[in-house]
Amino acid sequence: MYVKLFVGNLAWSVDDATLEAFFQDYGNVRSARVINDRETGRSRGFGFVEMEVADVATVISQTNGRAINGREIRVNEAEDKGSRGHRSGGDRGGFGGRRY
After folding, report:
1. Of 20, 42, 74, 89, which residue has the fewest beta carbons closer than 10 angstroms?
2. Range(s) of the domain holding residue 55
3. What is the pLDDT of residues 64-77, one digit of tens each?
4. Is position 81 within any domain?
5. On the CB side of 96, how many CA atoms lie within 13 Å of its CA?
6. Cβ partners under 8 Å of residue 97, min gap 6
């Protein structure tokens, strides 16, 4: 099964390759990406791993709380961008209309 994991509480020193190497023992990693701040280029302390696994619950239980570069990480199944309660589509609500 294909899964996208959210990995939080990353040390500033963790890069994409480190993240990929850590998760490689738990399944076939398609991608591993540490999210960086656009302005500073510094890690924001979290990332995403996309991988193929037999059982996502097992991977989460085996990796959540383990340390990478001295910090215990948090691992959860990532939410889809559209599932955070935001409206999608045409109706945006608010106070539209003409201004005179």
Report:
1. 89
2. 2-71
3. 999 999 999 999 99
4. no
5. 4
6. none
Q: What is the CATH number of the domain that holds 31?
A: 3.30.70.330
**Contact in structure between 92 and 25 (CB atoms under 8 Å):** no
Tell me the per-residue pLDDT of 50-62, one tens digit each, with 9 for 90 and over: 999 999 999 999 9
Q: How many domains does the chain have?
A: 1
CA atoms within 13 A on the CB side of 63: 28
Q: Residue 21: is its pLDDT beyond 80?
A: yes
Query: Which run of H or E residues covers position 23?
Result: helix 16-23
- Print burial letters for 44-83: b (CB count within 10 Å at least 16), e (below 16): ebebebbbebeebeebbeebeeeebeebebebeeeeeeee
Pairing label, strands 43-52, 28-36: antiparallel
Closest by CA to 75, choosing from 46, 38, 55, 95, is 46
Residue 21 falls inside a structural domain: yes
- What pLDDT does 94 receive? 52
